[in-house]
Amino acid sequence: MSWLFGIRRNEPNMGAVSPPDGGNPPAGGGGGGGGDGDDRSPSSPELKKAMEAYRFDSSALERAAQAARELEKSRHSKEALELSKMQEMTKQQELVMRTKEFEAAIETSKVDQKRVDGEERRKTVQEETKQHQARAQYQDQLARKRYEDQLQQQTRMNEENLRKQEESVQKQEAMRRATIEREMELRSQIDKKRLEAEMLAKAKADRENQDLYLERLRVKAAENRITVLESIKTAGTVIGTGVTTLLTDWDKTLTAVGGLSLLALGVYSARTATAMTGRFIEARLGKPSLVRDTSRFSVLETLKHPVLTVKKLKKKPADALAGVVLQPKLEERLRDVAIATKNTKQNRGMFRNILMYGPPGTGKTMFAKKLALHSGLDYAILTGGDVSPLGRDAVTAVHKVFDWAETSRKGLLLFIDEADAFLRKRSSETISEDLRATLNAFLYRTGEQSNKFMLVLASNTPEQFDWAVNDRLDEMVEFTLPGLQERERLLRLYFDKFVLEPAASTSVRRLKVEPFDFGEFCTEMAQMTEGMSGREIAKLGVSWQGAAYASEDGVLTRQMAVDRVNSALQQHRQKVEWQSEQEKREAKSITYSSKETSYSQVKPSAVPAINPPPAQPLPPKRIYGTHKPGKR
Description:
The protein is α/β, with parallel strands linked by helices. 63% of the residues lie in helices and 6% in strands. The protein is built from 19 helices and 10 strands.
């Protein structure tokens, strides 16, 4: 035990001196003597070299032996042995733990390697998937391109076949026409020869039978003369006998006079009843001649236009401002008017008369129709220019319109466009007597509020209305030219309506649009179209569509659209230059600024002037109607 302890303490010095014969050290002191049985000489170099190889320091063993003897004598020898055992076990456990940690590290590295391998496989699969998708897309593009090429080739073949067919048809038509012309020419020659032969034969026969012909004429004339004389004698005898009998017999005289009187009364009664029946049918089933357009249902209109009547019946009340682009303040005011009109109709109240004035093409007629549909009323559209040509019949026509309006069950919105054409001032305008009578009839029928119809007037020059007409108006709404935001909204609306929707429709094959930023385009065009009305902007949308149809490939490009806008602006400026100075003075609410090349709205300080100021010269007098003043 003491030797083991000493060996453990001197283990670093013992590790390199294990002899080749099994590890037993040679006997003897520290540094001398060879092994037993070795017959080699001590002075041999090889022996010396071997001895040097097995030589070690024995002092350490001596000290270990001394320490072991002291430890054996000590009372703590067992504890030291146990401590050494525990140290050895601790070192073994540490070695086991290190081994396990090393194994765990190896397993962790294997797991990491598997994770890396899995990640690599996943990336490989993703890359393969991308490659497959790219390959599939490329194949799909190739297939589409081949299909488009086939379609184009088929289209070209169809066009070529159609062209050949047209050429063939034209050739056949030319041959047919040539054949017909040749046949007509031959037929005309044959007819000419036949007529010549017939005339020659008839002339020869007349020359040969002239005596017989003259004799036949003389006999016929004698017979006619005898017949006429006999007829005159017979008629005279009958009339004389009848007059004699009538004068001598008073009963027959009274009978004849009564019969004639009853016949005249029957004719007059039939005419009167027919006229009254016609007026009743016209009021109930038809519409007056002055009404241009109406949503009111009638039997005659249904028979004339059944499809339009069905469409009108299917229409439902919608927003009064749907599709109408106006300034926010004007939209708010018109919405209040629409709500008030709808509630008035529902509560059977008295309708208010409205005047809508402003530049042409600002949406007055469109709003009037939508107001009627929104309120649940029928609408009827008249124009003031139709009244003046009627002359004396204008008064009757106006009364027929109002009588027809009062028979509406739902209520009627009576819209008169260009009302200033026949509602002019009686004091400052020289108008005909017929037009003056028509104005008086209009004032008579609109003197009181009505719950049957609502009167809406529209005019570009409201200052020309008669004072009595202005007195019958309850609300005046000014329609101004659209501003920048309103023009942009209108451009977007009509660009979508006339260009984008037809291009996206499958029924329209000719119209296509070049890809560009439509919103930016509409914004730029809104800044360029300052001074244009809503109607002009709508026509601009139609011109864009026409430009696409007129192009070779049917594609509307941005440059084509800009050129159309520039052309519309040039035409707009030309129209303004054509406007006379007198028209500019009459249209007080509209002025033209040459610097801005646009219309600018003049905001009056109060309600638009009814009568012109005294200092402003009156426009030249004009005569409206067909009769001169002072004559009927």
